[in-house]
Amino acid sequence: MRREGQLRACVPGAIRTGTLLDMRQILDLPTPSEARVRAMFGLTAAEARLAQLLASGDTLEEVAEKLCIKLTTARSQLAIIFSKAGIRRQTKLVAILSRIAHLERRAMEAA
After folding, report:
1. Which structural domains are found in the chain, ordered by start?
2. Phi, psi (degrees; rounded to nearest 5) at 33
3. pLDDT tens digits, the chain, 111 residues: what are they?
């Protein structure tokens, strides 16, 4: 029987073994450092913070609330991020930032 907040893992062997993953583990997305994001895309500190929070899984509305900015300001900053990064979709931004975070983690582990 599943507990609230858990789901059956969609990985090979999960159904046979009954392995359950906690939703917090699934939703705990890695985020790259602010300095790396700023350097790679030429973002301001505010834009980089917004991008990091999006990469961590927050919605734009949640990001605006956490940063104490209006949703319209968050949308404007996101449009600037898209322009600087050369992308058009939020999902693409999150995917790129996730890859950057994984590369950062690997570099730290190798050092």
Report:
1. 1-29 (no CATH), 31-110 (1.10.10.10)
2. -65, 150
3. 444 444 444 444 444 444 555 555 555 667 899 999 999 999 999 999 999 999 988 999 999 999 999 999 999 999 999 999 999 999 999 999 999 998 888 888 888
Structure tokens at 79: 């449009």
pTM, whole model, 2 decimals? 0.72
Within the chain, residue ranges assigned H as helices are 14-17, 23-27, 34-41, 45-55, 60-67, 71-85, 90-110
Classified as helix, coil or strand, 91 is: helix
Asked if residue 29 lies in contact with residue 95, where contact means CB atoms within 8 angstroms, the answer is no
Alpha-carbon torsion angle 62, 46, 69, 102, nearest 10 = 0
Show the tokens assigned to 105: 């983690």
Angle separating helix axes 90-110 and 45-55, nearest 10 degrees? 90
